[in-house]
Amino acid sequence: MHKLLTDNPGEKMLLLGNEAIARGAIEAGVAFTSTYPGTPSSEITLNFFQMSQESDLYFEYSTNEKVALEVSAAAANCGVRSMAVMKHVGLNVAADALMTLAYVGVKAGLVVLSADDPFMFSSQNEQDNRYYAKLSGLPMLEPSSVPEAMEMLPYAFDLSEQLQEPVLFRTTTRINHSSGFVTLGKIRERRTKGEFTKDPLNLVTVPAVSRNLHVKLLKNIDAARGIAESSPYNFIDGSGRLGIICNGVSYNYVSDALKDLGAADRIKVLRIGFSHPLPEALIKDFLQGCEKVLVVEEGEPYMEEAVKAFAQEAQLTVPIRGKSKELFSRLYEYDPAMVKGNIAAYFDIPWEPKTAVDASDVPAIPQRPPTLCAGCSHRATFYEVRKAAEALGVETIYPTDIGCYTLGLLPPLSAADFLICMGSSVGTAGGFSKVTDKKVIAFIGDSTFFHAGVAGLVNAVFNNHDLTLVILDNGTTAMTGHQPHPGVDMQRLNLDGYGQVSIEAVVRAVGASHVTVIKPYKVKKSIEAIKEAITHKGVSVIISQEVCALYARVLKLPKRKPFQITDRCKNRRDCMSDLACPAFYVWNERIKIDPVLCTGCALCAQICPENAISPLKKKKETV
Amino acid sequence: MDVTRVIIVAVGGQGNLLASSVLGEAALLAGMPMQMSEIHGMAQRGGVVESALIFGEARSTIISDGEADLLVGFEPAETLRAVQKCNADSVVITNLAPLMPFTVNIGKGVYPDLAQLQDLIRKKTARLIAFNAAKLANEAGNPLAVNMVLLGALTQVDILPFSVDNVKEAMGRKTKQQFLESNLKAFDLGFRAAEQAG
After folding, report:
1. Which of A115, A163, A360, A392 gets the highest tally of CB atoms within 10 A of its CB?
2. pLDDT higher than 90, residue A617
3. How many helices (H) and strands (E) does chain A have?
4. Helix axis angle, A523-535 relative to A377-392, nearest 10°?
5. Could you give the C-alpha distances from B94 to A26, B47, B100, B120, in angstroms and in order?
């Protein structure tokens, strides 16, 4: 049985934050779950996916976050507890649905989880999604720890049902990817089937309806504020004439700092876990007795600005500080020593920081940047596109997209020139093609194509853009851990009950005037096909099909023989300088291939001018 | 109880996260509070994986520069890269078997000299325990057990207040049964290596 389905209240477990969140939802009786995968949220729904295979929990990988929210919104409007999970930028995609769903509301609990990523460990921006709560008018909850995240989920579902509207649940990477001990609670019964009651005057948002629904939403915000005032997740630690207001993981750094500084008796702390609407009366009351207040929050000054406004209303002149050059930054994530230092500085507390060792005499250590794997089919496609463009003597612009292949940005492949969001490769390609004379070749992955690329392709066909779209179809959502997408044959995973959407059929149906499917490990043929596509005027599409090298191992596909460099090698090093596959290494001034890393893709063997790379005779052996 | 902060650094695939979860499980068995966090965004693609483990009554799940009591490096250059997590009182344990960064293989960077690397760490911290953990893992019959060798060494230095039995029981719970014997052997070899390092 899946460990998160363990029905043993009181049992202690060590769980990853994302496991604890999934367990919290299960304890809340969630019955319908959906997502588009995105770090740092992905393990939440990996666990839902696994649990759905051995229980009556419904889970789906939706095409994108907007669809994920829509399916869950419908389920929740039929009285089924639902949860839509996404990373912070995913909520941008789902925002259209969210903003008006806030008017319509729900019948059963709906929790929308947004996993924010301060410092951008694996994201393109570090937007602070607390503003989505303010923008939509929906309540927001933010845990500070792994066990709190778990226990907050049943509360979130109850709150959603009490207010009859979705609840936003915001985590940051340091909640999702921290681990801690949790004590399992009772699992509430799942209600997997619901009932839809027709009520168009409340559920169909034509203007006349929405004018009423907006009134309802504003009333709900007042009701939610009332609940936030006495929520157990907004609480005060300690007492004193000095105050700190904080949220999320910042609360941990503040608590530890006050202990280390011996200041817990002088500084009181207001921890905000129910952060929209903010508990106005509670905050005003907290400010009343304070001589000086510090707001500690990663990201934007969301609370700071509100707290200052509350102080103005309460006619308080207490100094309130947070974001400033001297104190906290809006950039990146915080850490315990930094928070401690700022608290000490702001409240004039003497403190001797632990001195980090002086690393100024440490020699430069070679970087270990993430790189395309040995045998990654994207490397082959990038190489072939570059060679085809070179052969034709065309200057190129390479808009790219979000996935492993973004790593094609690095030399020697250098196949990425512009990226803003999911699907932007094909959309921006159209703009580049209209205003420059360069050949525009856009790259997009298979999962990303379904997520946000189809509309861009339709646009390109309709507006007659002159571009080549290369769809890198490696048969999985590789970057986030090999989740399926609509193009995946689920039978291969021994899972029944799924359809399958052919990328080629979609592309042809959209009306791209030149469509070719290539096998990127066939180098010459692929280069010829790409040359043809590049020469074509209008929208041409190349679908480059080869399974992800890591996923091939998961699927236990037959292994190819690894390759070696023979003594025919004249040390020209085209393999190294053009491909830079991580299976290569230099030994005694010669290039060698690590047989453990080599997947036998034969890309290097096909480009070697000396024909000096051939398969090893023996089966794989370890070095 | 004092708070003890441990950083483990490794290259993707070296089993850092498994080693961390064994320590977490051992803390659970010993009834000791523990928090940990990990950064493993692109571990499978050759990047660095860092875990922070905080034992005792603390809420933070990450460790600032200068605040680690113990740094365990599964790869020597990564140990050196993380040395700013240490202060003059920190203890450092490192494997001495390098995994060449790809940037070195393509001639974009020079791998640090191992003798100089050890001198630098020794000079800056209270104690360095350095040995070839890959060799010991091979000796244990499981080349992938570098993580368990270092777990043995970490347990020997007695910075964490739980017993060898706690850790071994946690290994039984968290590692695959078929590898348990070789893992336990690797653990013992690492424990002894740290003992001999004095």
Report:
1. A115
2. no
3. 22, 23
4. 50
5. 41, 18, 16, 13
Inspect the interface and report whether the beta carbons of A174 and B28 lie closer than 8 Å: no
* Interchain contact, A256 vs B59, CB within 8 Å: yes
Tens digit of each residue's pLDDT (9 = 90 or more) over A225-241: 999 999 999 999 999 99
Sign of CA dihedral A427, A432, A434, A439: negative
At A60-89, the pLDDT tens digits run 999 999 999 999 999 999 999 999 999 999
Point out the residue among B25, B39, B105 whose CB comes nearest to the CB of A586: B105
Return the DSSP state at A467: E
CATH number of A3-229: 3.40.50.970
Q: Which residue of chain A is at minimal alpha-carbon distance from B25?
A: A14
| Model pLDDT, residue A544 | 98
Nearest CA distance, B191 vs chain A (angstrom): 25
Interface list for A 177-206 with B (CB within 8 A): 177-181
Residues A276-295: what's their mean pLDDT?
Answer: 97
CB contact under 8 A, B120 and A361: yes
CB atoms within 10 A of CB A417: 17
The superfamily CATH assigns to domain A377-488+500-554 is Thiamin diphosphate (ThDP)-binding fold, Pyr/PP domains (3.40.50.970)
A573 to chain B: nearest residue by CA? B106
- Does residue B37 sit in helix, strand or coil? strand
What is the least distance, in Å, from the CA of B32 to any CA of chain A? 10
Per DSSP, the three-state class of B95 is strand
Query: For the domain that residue B168 is a member of, what is the CATH number?
Result: 3.40.920.10
Query: Residue A312 contacts by C-beta under 8 Å, 6 or more apart in sequence?
Result: none
Assembly ipTM: 0.95
B101 with A368: Cβ contact below 8 A: yes
What is the model's pLDDT at position A619? 53
Query: A563-615: which CATH number, 3.40.50.970, 3.30.70.20, 3.40.50.170, 3.40.190.150?
Result: 3.30.70.20
Q: How far apart are CA A520 and CA A504, in angstroms?
A: 16
| Among chain B residues, CA nearest to A574 | B106
For domain A234-346, give the fold: Rossmann fold (3.40.50)
- Give the mean model confidence (pLDDT) for residues B52-66: 97
pLDDT for the residue numbered B197: 87
Question: Given B38, B63, B64, which is nearest A338 (Cβ)?
Answer: B64
